[in-house]
Design goal:
single chain; about 100 residues; alpha+beta; 3-stranded antiparallel beta sheet; 1 helix
Length: about 100
């Protein structure tokens, strides 16, 4: 049964894998007997979903923002210079050696 023939009605089941079909215009007149692999169920006038384009290659690198941005570092750096804080403390007010200092 060619696909272009349109809609058909199943008249009777001839065997477990074959059916007798007829046109929807004249259901009394069978068109023929067809195997189940040839028949497809009617889905209506649904438009099949369009397959999205597959992106190929390596995914783009996502850069996570750091906890301290250069703008906020400038604010802390400026506050250290203008305050009369203990010189042994770093930018964040924590005591420690040169490893904790903000350069």
């Amino acid at each position: 049964m060619p696909r272009r023939d349109g809609l058909f009605v199943i008249v009777e089941r001839k065997s477990p894998v074959s059916y007798s079909v007829a046109n929807t215009d004249s259901p009394q007149l069978p068109v023929g007997v067809y195997h189940t692999s040839v028949l497809t169920p009617f889905q209506g006038n649904l438009i099949p979903p369009i397959k999205a384009l597959r992106r190929r290659g390596r995914p783009a690198r996502i850069i996570k923002p750091s906890s301290i941005t250069p703008a906020s570092a400038q604010i802390h750096k400026g506050s250290q210079n203008t305050s009369s804080a203990d010189p042994g403390r770093d930018v964040f007010g924590v005591r420690g050696g040169c490893c904790n200092r903000w350069f």
